[in-house]
């Protein structure tokens, strides 16, 4: 988006910063879980987490 709008600050700085910040927080949590021997929380109802690619009949109708 930033590249298409000719905005180098959003194309490079903000985009990379967001990616790196999220990666760092993910790694901090992973390190904490490893140090304490804990397992990560598994979200039971997280959308599309199961890998099922069946189209929802509620939206697409019966097929």
Description:
- This protein is an all-alpha fold and 63 residues long.
- It is built from two helices and no strands.
- The longest helix is centred in the middle third of the chain and has 29 residues, at 8-36.
- The relative contact order is 0.07.
What's the short story on this structure?
The chain has 63 residues and is mainly alpha-helical.
Average predicted confidence as pLDDT: 77
The percent range for strand residues is under 5%
Structural class: mainly alpha
- Helix count from the secondary structure assignment: 2
Helix content bin? 40-55%
How far is the first residue's CA from the last residue's CA? 36 Å
Principal-axes geometry comes out as flat
Radius of gyration: 19 Å
Largest sheet: number of strands, sense, barrel closure: none
**Helix/strand order, N-terminal first:** HH
- Give the strand tally: 0
Would you identify the regions where 5 or more consecutive residues have pLDDT less than 50?
none
